[in-house]
User: Fold this.
Amino acid sequence: MKLFRAIRDDIDSIMVRDPAACSRLTVLFAYPGFHAVLIHRLANLFDRNGLCFLGRMVSHLGRFLTSIEIHPGAQLGCRLFIDHGVGCVIGETTIIGDDVTLYQGVTLGGVTLAPEKRHPTLEDSVIVGAGAKVLGPFTVGAGARIAANAVVLKEVPPGVTVAGVPARAMQSRVREPAFRAYGMPGADVPDPVAGALDTLTGEVNTLRKRLDELEQK
Assistant:
């Protein structure tokens, strides 16, 4: 009964977050991200009970069927939505909270070979945009958004939007719609790199003007 309730909640959450989902039946039979999560639950059950080989074989089957690779040791929360999903990779020690959204090409990876936690922790309601890489054993706080193609190498505070390579904060704890596709910041959010360049250009122009005044004297 608990399993069926979890499946129902997964489907309902996808219906809310994907305007292309025309029916629950479509999600059930034609959404690879949904299938990948279901298959992972079985693989994780084997892994937690010491049946590592079976866990990896089920995980491998899931990768073959969905093009989404989830290590059987990863811990996934409720109502995870992997949208499109092709090329998505979730590492062994990854921990994902509830109501998280991942898009295609996302990597939740590690940067060390040490036998310890080496993959990120994503708290509740995090959105990770297409092609983003989150690399390391740090935490991405609840409600944070990672824009498409960002490379995140350090902790992200709750509610903050980051973008770029390496990722920098674009927006901090402001009121926005509860869900923004691909984790992209609003159109009115300034680019911090462009802002820094504008400041530098202004200083150069001021110095140039001062130099001209000195030369005239």
Notes: Helices lie at 2-17, 24-30, 32-48, 52-66, 192-216. The two ends are 87 Å apart (CA to CA).
